[in-house]
Amino acid sequence: MKVLVYGAQIAKMFFGELLNILDENEVGYDLVEPNGVEALAEDSKDHEAVITFFPLREAEINALADSVKGVVVTSIGYDNIDVAAANKRGIMVCNIPDYCTEEVALHSVTLILASLRNLCLYDRTIREGKWKTRSMVCGRPHHRLSTMTMGFMGFGRIGQKVAQMMAGFGVKFIAYDPYLPESVFTSMNVERAETPDDVYAKSDILSVYMLLNDETYHLIGKDSIAKMKDDVIIVNTARGALFDLESVTEGLKSGKIGAAGIDVWENEPVPVDHPILKDDNAIVTPHCAYFSIEANLDLRKKSLMTAVNLCKGEVPYNCVNKKALGLA
Ligand SMILES: NC(=O)c1ccc[n+]([C@@H]2O[C@H](COP(=O)([O-])OP(=O)(O)OC[C@H]3O[C@@H](n4cnc5c(N)ncnc54)[C@H](O)[C@@H]3O)[C@@H](O)[C@H]2O)c1
Predict the structure, then answer these.
(1) Which domain holds residue 27?
(2) What is the largest distance, in Å, between two alpha-carbon atoms of the chain?
(3) Is 57 a catalytic residue?
(4) 60 included as an active-site residue
(5) How many domains does the chain have?
(6) Are residues 275 and 303 in the same domain?
(7) Ligand 1: which residues within 6 Å by Cβ?
(8) Which protein residue's CA is at the shortest distance from atom 7 of ligand 1?
(9) Digitized pLDDT (tens) for each residue of the chain, 328 residues in all
(10) Per-residue CA distances from 317 to 81, 83, 307 (Å)
(11) How far is it, in rounded angstroms, from Cα 75 to Cα 87?
């Protein structure tokens, strides 16, 4: 049993001594740099799995030896793999979808709580030598969290983890995710929204946890914001382009949106002169929600263990094209 690691230099830095995990599981490995499809065809002979740090487009997928059962990307996103080509060849494509679920959920909760309590504004004001002023305490009213409703757009891994974390605060939940079974909502005491408008109408805090695609691009924009409650708090730790940033900035300026907590940006880094950065009710972070030492370790271990599973002829839980290959 052998794994081909496609991207030798990066792999040495990324995995370091963790490559021992392969030895411990009696799986051999070869580290190679990309050197054209012919080299890949030769290098992948007698390997059951490929861990890749480089794109595998149709040509590379087609070049893989027949021994290859699956490929592993060391990230959540797998847009650098031609899954359709992999489907045609019966090759499993695996990502690491859950290495930072807890971190991103906690970051969301942090943005929500910091927004509710005007945390960053208080911090800045003290540092400016101003202490608190009456207008600051009363400016953007604080409300009791246990009187509020939190809305989720998308209720997958991260959304559900956020609900678990927020449950202790006594806040009510409503979620829109048409792709989930009823049991997910009932087991977590979450009202199931039939339409996005239900979530917009009922939420005091609204957070997005869906993937970015044509359907969800600029989901939170002028029209959806108009349907929200006044003074709503909105949070995005998912993908930048789920927010139309200009509409969000305008909503903050007009006071329709009470506060916005944003970790992800359509254009990263967000330009330092963007007007949203001048708004006291925007709390911003630089796409760092995923990070922790433990998440980073988890990512590397899970990547290697997925390759081990493939070598052993198993169907890893994180195979994204299971259904297409008739393995689900
Ligand atoms: N900020 C970060 O560092 C960071 C790190 C990891 C993941 N993320 C992002 O967080 C988001 C959520 O990740 P996850 O692990 O919970 O993903 P997930 O796949 O577990 O959940 C996504 C949910 O969205 C639902 N969904 C899809 N289209 C929808 C639609 N049109 N309307 C309503 N629901 C829809 C799906 O049914 C699914 O339940 C993703 O966008 C991911 O890229 C961000």
Answers:
(1) 2-99+293-311
(2) 73
(3) no
(4) no
(5) 2
(6) no
(7) 76, 97, 100-101, 104, 153-159, 176-177, 179-180, 209-212, 215-216, 237-239, 263-264, 287, 289-290
(8) 238
(9) 999 999 999 999 999 999 999 999 999 999 999 999 999 999 999 999 999 999 999 999 999 999 999 999 999 989 899 999 999 999 999 999 999 999 999 999 999 999 999 999 989 888 988 887 766 665 578 899 999 999 999 999 999 999 999 999 999 999 999 999 999 999 999 999 999 999 999 999 999 999 899 999 999 999 999 999 999 999 999 999 999 999 999 999 999 999 999 999 999 999 999 999 999 999 999 999 999 999 999 999 999 999 999 999 999 999 999 999 999 8
(10) 18, 17, 12
(11) 20
The domain spanning residue 16 has which CATH number?
3.40.50.720
**Phi, psi angles (nearest 5°) of residue 15:** -90, -35
d(CA 156, ligand 1 centre) in Å: 6
Distance 209 CA to ligand 1 centre (A): 4
| The overall pTM is greater than 0.85 | yes
Does 192 qualify as catalytic in the annotation? no
282-284 and 92-94 strand pairing: unpaired
Rounded CA-CA distance 60/37 in Å is 6
Residues in the chain: 328
Query: Does any domain span residue 316?
Result: no
User: Is there a single domain that holds both residue 268 and residue 131?
Assistant: yes
Query: Same structural domain for residues 297 and 257?
Result: no
